[in-house]
Amino acid sequence: MDFPKEPQGEAGAVSPAGTDGARQLREVIRAENVRKTFTLSRKQRKIEKNPSGRKVALDGLSFTAYEGEIYGLLGPNGAGKTTMLRILSTLIRADEGDAFVAGRSVRREPDKVRAAIGFLTSELKLEDFFTPAYLFGFFGRLHGMDEGALARRREELFARFGIDRFAEVKVGDLSTGMKQKVSIAVSIIHDPPVIIFDEPTNGLDVLTARVVTDFLLEEKARGKSIVLSTHIFSLVEKLCDRVGVIIAGRMAAEGTLAEVSGGRPLEDAFFDLYKRTVAGE
To answer: Do 239 and 205 contact (CB within 8 A), yes or no?
Structure first.
């Protein structure tokens, strides 16, 4: 898979921790000392018991993901996972630091970053009135796809996710699982080299969740770079090559599953890490 040539001093070919150095992996995503703070509303201040009105979502977060791997961001709700993915996807800007996707700075080259990624968020709400066929065409044209390429890609993805029989059914009449499949298809219309998914299996039945996880493994096998956030330990253990554990906006641990878990169940390792990091035990 071809990526834009990285500017010197940014992304490059390196060996991630835990490898023997024999295989050089291409660095595709790197976050560098990313900081983000939000201003809370009066209601949020009361709920969170935060009189200062400021919430630190990311506190100097850094991590690296490589070509042809699935990298998991694991952490409790409110840890900063979604905020980091929104910054990677250029939806919001960091207060400090930067991130690079396929050698492009999200701060300086957001248009080129957006062209290289497919981003799926749990907050993506497809308009009930439209059909999958209409939405696919709409978003495909936004990516500048010609009608021939759009038709071929639609045939491929609709068949892959079983959307073809529902192509002209309004979104409002689709099941939750089918809506998620349509959302995935829309997010990767342009066959991007980098896939960023935020909680991709939340609220899905076991059959639809399996479709999603199988798809991610297939994309990895094609050489795609995938970053996903989740709080589901079994999903990380099934899919991820490497994992970063975010607690309170900071990277508490990063590495291969074996390195992070120490040979124990990931859930046990996570809670021990959480206690040490937050509770000071």
So the answer is: no
